[in-house]
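Researcher: Please predict.
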Amino acid sequence: MKRTSRLAAWLLAAGVGTLAASGVASSAARAEDGAAALAGKTCGTLASRVAEIPGSGPVFLRSYDSSFGVGQTSELPLREAAFTYDNALAVIALVACGKTEPALRIGESLLSAATLDRARRQGRLRNTYRAGAQTQKPIPPNGWWDVTANRWFEDAYQVGSATGNVAWAGLALMTLGEATGEERFRNGAAELARWVVANTADPRGPGGFNGGVQGFDDKPQALTWKATEHNTDLVALFGWLERSGTPREGGGDWAGPEKAARGFLDRMWADGGGHFPTGTAPDGVTVNRATSGLDAQLWPLLLRGAPEAWRAALDYAEKAHGVDRGFDFNDDRDGMWVEGTAQAALVYRLLGRPDDAQRLLAEVGKEVSRGGHVWATREDSITTGLAIGPDSTTDDFRYYRRPHLAVTAWTVLAAVGWNPFTGERVK
C-alpha cells in the first residue's frame, strides 16, 4: 500500500477537497514510484557489474564504466582503475539494496587489503586497485603496462593512502559487519582506523587528522593539510566502532579519536561563520578559504547527533553551490556535480524535506547512462578548485562527464534513503 503525504492525510481527515487530496496523494505516489524505479535500476546495475566478473570470489569494480561503448577513457591509469572510495560506496549501496552477496564479494577484497598490504603493514589501504577478480594476496595496487615505454607504471596518488578513502573502506566493512554479524569485518575496520590514528593524527591548530600519504613506498610523502571531509568520515567511523564495542589494539577506546575528529569539525564550523571551510592549508593550522566544497557542507549533517545549528551549512550550499536544478562541487557554479546532487537529496530526506529530495532525484535520474551507471557531471567537465596532488601547480582536479561507480552508489543511497555514516535508513 502506497503512503500518502502528510498533507494529503490531513486533507482527507478534515474532509477538505477529496479531489485535491487525491491529487496530492497521486503526486506523492508518483514521486515515490520514481525514487523506487531509480533505486531498482541503479541497484541492478551495481549487482550486474559484480555478476559479470566470473566466479564467486573477491572482486573490485571498475570506477569508470564503459558499457555499450559509453564513457571509455583513453587514460591508461584509469581504464582498469578500481578506486577504493568508489568500491566502498558500492558495498554500502548494495547492502542498502538488500543485495548482500555481491556486496560481500567487494567487501572480501577490502578486507584482504585492510588486513595485509604489500608493504607488510596491517591497515595500510591504497587509493586504487586494479578492477576484476582479486586472486593475489596481498592485493597489488593498480598499475598498467605502457607499450611505448615498454615498462610497468604506477601512479603516485593511486598507490597512496588518503585518509578519507581509508575511512570509507572502514565504513563499508562496518556495514558488512552489521549485515552479516561477522566480527571479522568490524575487526578489519578497526585495523584501518588504527592505521589512521597511528599515521595521520595531527594536534597542531584545530587538531584532527591530516590527508594521509602519497607517493611510492620508497619515498612516501605526508599530506599535511587537513580536510573537513576526511575528519567527518572519521567521526562516523570512530563513533561506529565505539558503539559496536569493537576493541582497539593496545587498549583504550575509540572515543578519543572520535573526539579529536569532531573537535576539528567544531573548529571549522566556528571559523566558517555559518558554513564549513574545506579544511586547512598544508601547515595544518591555517584555515583554507580559497575555495568551497559541497561535501564539506553536506556530510557533517549526516553524522549521528549533528547539531541543529549545522543545518545552516545547507542554506549556504544552496546559495554558494546551487546551479540550475542541482548543485556544483565548488562555488564557481560552472555545472552540475551529479554525485553531490544525489548527496544533497539524501540530506534533504534526512532533514524532513522530501519534496526537495524528490526534485533532485528526478534530475539525477535524467543522468543514467545506457550502461546503467550515472554520469558524473551534466556538462562536459566542471572545476573543483582543488589540486590533484602536492606537486600540482594549479587547481587541476576536475570532474568529467563519464559514467561513474561512486555517483551510481550515491544515487542508490539517496533513492533508497540510506545513511552510510550510520548504516540506517532515513525517513
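Model: The mean pLDDT is 92.
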